[in-house]
Design brief:
With about 110 residues, the protein is α+β, with helices and mostly antiparallel strands. It is built from four helices and five strands; from the N terminus they run ββββαβααα. A five-stranded antiparallel sheet has the order 4-3-2-1-5.
């Protein structure tokens, strides 16, 4: 069985719990044999390749973005919105409310 790591290197199973690098972007790394657990920890996650699967580097998942509630307490969110509304020069008729700012923040976060 062959595997590809996050760097795009291809590894082949030797059958004894070890993997050998069969293709690498690093010069001189082809032919290096390592324990499978070490390869998964240092270069993983490994994705199995079939004969018709192209060997392409895997993209690591992006970290989860923090939410407004996770970063700030409810009171500090309200205080920040209030500071935004009162701290910027607005036309007297166009001044938004604090709740308008909070709704925009929720919309940008993805909540409805």
């Amino acid at each position: 069985m062959k595997y590809i790591d996050v760097d795009g290197d291809t590894w082949a199973d030797t059958g004894n719990g070890r993997l050998v690098c069969t293709r690498s972007s690093v010069a001189g790394f082809e032919g290096v044999e390592r324990a499978r657990a070490y390869v998964e920890e240092a270069h993983g996650p490994l994705v199995g390749l079939s004969d018709d699967t192209p060997a392409e580097p895997q993209v690591a998942p992006s970290p989860v973005l923090p939410t407004v509630d996770g970063v700030m307490s409810r009171a500090s969110v309200f205080q920040s919105a209030h500071a935004l509304v009162t701290g910027l020069p607005w036309e007297s008729e166009e001044k938004p409310s604090v709740y308008d700012v909070l709704q925009v923040a929720k919309w940008l976060e993805g909540d409805e």
